[in-house]
């Protein structure tokens, strides 16, 4: 191994001090040059490997060096990769998609990768969990309700897919700022002064903060100057199925998702917790459109479930909340679920079916 190679390794080792962005970029460039030099002058190292594997291994080493150099927080930590993006780069993008000369931390590459990961991931969650909910939870008798429109499921899916596609474009720039280290996301529990109690506090804080913000954003969407342009598309589905969960105007959907992105720029949040909460809120959104109006005991007065949300679709100005009933109660927009009073969509369908049976 050359002396210069050893010198570069010393600069990138665990004990090395964190340098400026320019210095770090210089070290990574040196590493690339030295790595290429080693491959040219010591080709025997790769005789038992597949063509191109040495180059790939070198590229992965460069990535590891750059990650070591950029570890930390703040704007200079421009390679603090989101876990999903890191995995996608390691197993898919770096070895199979992008050209060998394109660094993983380059801004345009990260933006493209984030768009692919975000749009495909959101579509898979929507279609996957939506289908499971539609076939195993949703009561298909509700499709006999007079306000269930013709070809509704197809229309919901079409609008949902298109909406997620367009929503992902503004969303990736928020993810990009998070990946670049401008948020308060962190990797290790030990990095937080609050430790494990802080993790649970951040989960509660995330749910409270996003529920509050979404309540007011959602309520603003019902203002007459905004409603017909944005939110009306979602409300054509009076008796929603799980596929109505993401069937929004793209701008409407993006604005209602903003609190999820704003939170980690204001409050510390563990990266894995953040990712888990993002998956959770998408599944929750599907669940409040699934037609299963059962809510355990006293939680009826706390949780804004499917029974509450279907009344929002039917009666328009009630139950704006995302998870809880708190802000509807404070804002005077709470309505006790009609489904729990024997006056819900199921009751209406049962009445129609009974009348039809009597006429036969």
UniProtKB/TrEMBL annotation:
GO terms for biological process: lipid biosynthetic process. Its main location: membrane. PANTHER family: STEROL DESATURASE. The chain crosses the membrane at residues 112-138, 159-179, 199-218. It is found in: Membrane. It comes from the Eukaryota. It holds the Pfam family FA_hydroxylase. Keywords: Membrane, Transmembrane, Transmembrane helix. Coiled coil: none annotated. This is Lathosterol oxidase-like isoform X1.
């Amino acid at each position: 191994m050359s002396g210069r190679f050893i010198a570069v390794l010393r600069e990138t080792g665990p004990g090395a001090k964190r340098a400026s962005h320019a210095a770090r970029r210089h070290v990574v460039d040196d590493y690339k040059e030295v790595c290429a030099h080693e491959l040219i002058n010591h080709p025997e190292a790769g005789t038992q490997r597949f063509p191109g594997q040495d180059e790939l291994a070198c590229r992965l080493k460069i990535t590891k060096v750059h990650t070591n150099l950029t570890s930390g927080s703040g704007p200079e930590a421009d390679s603090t990769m989101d876990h999903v993006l890191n995995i996608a780069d390691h197993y898919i993008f770096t070895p199979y998609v992008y050209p060998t000369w394109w660094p993983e931390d380059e801004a345009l590459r990260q933006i493209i990768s984030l768009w692919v990961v975000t749009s495909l991931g959101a579509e898979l969650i929507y279609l996957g969990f939506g289908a499971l909910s539609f076939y195993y939870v949703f009561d298909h008798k509700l499709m006999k309700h007079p306000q269930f429109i013709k070809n509704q499921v197809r229309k919901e899916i079409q609008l949902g897919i298109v909406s997620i596609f367009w929503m992902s474009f503004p969303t990736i720039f928020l993810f990009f700022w998070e990946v670049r280290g401008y948020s308060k996301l962190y990797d290790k529990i030990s990095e937080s002064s609050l430790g494990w109690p802080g993790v649970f506090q951040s989960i509660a804080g995330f749910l409270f903060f996003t529920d509050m913000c979404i309540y007011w954003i959602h309520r603003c969407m019902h203002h007459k100057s905004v409603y017909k342009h944005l939110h009306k598309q979602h409300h054509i589905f009076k008796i929603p199925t799980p596929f109505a969960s993401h069937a929004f105007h793209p701008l409407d959907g993006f604005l209602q998702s903003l609190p999820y992105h704003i939170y980690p720029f204001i409050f510390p949040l563990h990266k894995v917790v953040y990712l888990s909460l993002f998956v959770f809120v998408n599944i929750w959104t599907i669940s409040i459109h699934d037609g299963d109006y059962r809510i355990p005991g006293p939680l009826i007065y706390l949780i804004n479930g499917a029974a509450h949300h279907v009344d929002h679709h039917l009666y328009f100005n009630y139950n704006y909340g995302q998870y809880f009933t708190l802000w509807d109660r404070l804002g005077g927009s709470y309505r006790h679920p009609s489904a729990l009073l024997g006056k819900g969509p199921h009751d209406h369908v049962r009445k129609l079916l009974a009348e039809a049976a009597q006429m036969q």
